[in-house]
Automatic annotation (TrEMBL):
<dbReference type="Pfam" id="PF00702">
    <property type="entry name" value="Hydrolase"/>
</dbReference>
<protein>
    <submittedName>
        <fullName>Beta-phosphoglucomutase</fullName>
    </submittedName>
</protein>
<feature type="binding site">
    <location>
        <position position="170"/>
    </location>
    <ligand>
        <name>Mg(2+)</name>
    </ligand>
</feature>
<feature type="binding site">
    <location>
        <position position="8"/>
    </location>
    <ligand>
        <name>Mg(2+)</name>
    </ligand>
</feature>
<feature type="binding site">
    <location>
        <begin position="8"/>
        <end position="10"/>
    </location>
    <ligand>
        <name>substrate</name>
    </ligand>
</feature>
<feature type="site" description="Important for catalytic activity and assists the phosphoryl transfer reaction to Asp8 by balancing charge and orienting the reacting groups">
    <location>
        <position position="145"/>
    </location>
</feature>
<dbReference type="GO" id="GO:0000287">
    <property type="term" value="F:magnesium ion binding"/>
</dbReference>
<keyword id="KW-0460">Magnesium</keyword>
<dbReference type="GO" id="GO:0008801">
    <property type="term" value="F:beta-phosphoglucomutase activity"/>
</dbReference>
<dbReference type="InterPro" id="IPR023198">
    <property type="entry name" value="PGP-like_dom2"/>
</dbReference>
<feature type="binding site">
    <location>
        <position position="76"/>
    </location>
    <ligand>
        <name>substrate</name>
    </ligand>
</feature>
<keyword id="KW-0479">Metal-binding</keyword>
<feature type="binding site">
    <location>
        <position position="145"/>
    </location>
    <ligand>
        <name>substrate</name>
    </ligand>
</feature>
<dbReference type="InterPro" id="IPR006439">
    <property type="entry name" value="HAD-SF_hydro_IA"/>
</dbReference>
<feature type="binding site">
    <location>
        <position position="24"/>
    </location>
    <ligand>
        <name>substrate</name>
    </ligand>
</feature>
<dbReference type="GO" id="GO:0005975">
    <property type="term" value="P:carbohydrate metabolic process"/>
</dbReference>
<dbReference type="InterPro" id="IPR010972">
    <property type="entry name" value="Beta-PGM"/>
</dbReference>
Length: 218
């Protein structure tokens, strides 16, 4: 059988959260706002604009103009891209290649469903752009996760129904989006945090070929 396998990017294929953190921390510090690793968790799966709003909310009565906000968004992305530029395939998370290779060998559509506007350059940097039959990212959709738009568009590109689509996600918002879409949600990370997921794994090394075969033949 053929299914659509939809992968989130940040936190699933690569750990870019650490680079987002460094770039956002610079922005926060420039505004006198304390921004911790714990705060960074709030930004996972969330769009760039929304991330800035969350950071501004961490400060006390920080009010800035729209113009300044746009400036900060540009500055943040410029900083982030400096880190991205240094990435290579050693940054692909454990077990990911094994799963991508297995799906490819079994002729399953592989789709990217990410909120990031930098998805393509990141996939290029880590040398796996050619694995993807289609890419749906922050440039293609208007509604951010937990809205299911990004995954619904992805399934459509693979010519598969939502029921025949499987989503790998590391964020609560992403799992919620997959569930709302009526897709099979697979949480990658803390099961206690991603407790709404249909299946949970700490990382891709725990995903067996038997499990993937079960998903394909269901
Ligand atoms: P960018 P994902 C998301 O990617 C990240 O988890 C989130 O932290 C980030 O703010 C968002 O992309 C936008 O990224 O600034 O590169 O457009 O997890 O949906 O792959
Ligand atoms: Mg993610």
């Amino acid at each position: 059988k053929t299914k659509a396998f939809i992968f989130d990017l940040d936190g699933v294929i690569v750990d870019t959260a650490k680079y987002h953190f460094l770039a956002w921390q610079k922005v926060a510090n420039s505004l006198g706002i304390n921004f911790t690793h714990e705060d960074n968790e709030l930004l996972k799966g969330v769009s760039r604009v929304r991330s800035l709003e969350i950071i501004l909310g961490l400060g006390e009565n920080v009010e800035i103009t729209e113009e300044k906000k746009n400036e900060l968004l540009i500055k943040k992305n410029e900083d982030y891209l400096v880190y991205i530029d240094k990435m290579d395939d050693s940054e692909i998370l454990p077990g990911v290649m094994k799963v991508l290779d297995f799906l490819k060998a079994n002729n399953q559509p592989i789709i990217l469903g990410s909120a990031s506007k930098n998805a393509r350059p990141i996939l290029e940097k880590v040398n796996i752009l050619h694995y993807f039959d289609d890419i749906v990212d922050g440039n293609d959709v208007t509604n951010a996760k937990p809205d299911p738009e990004v995954f619904l568009v992805g399934a459509k590109k693979a010519n598969q129904s939502a029921e025949n689509s499987i989503v790998f996600e590391d964020s609560v918002a992403g799992i919620e989006a997959a569930n709302i879409a009526g897709m099979t949600s697979i949480g990658i990370g803390e099961a206690s945090v991603l407790n709404e997921a249909k299946y949970n794994f700490n990382n891709f090394t725990e995903i067996t070929e038997d499990f993937l075969n079960e998903l394909i033949n269901k």
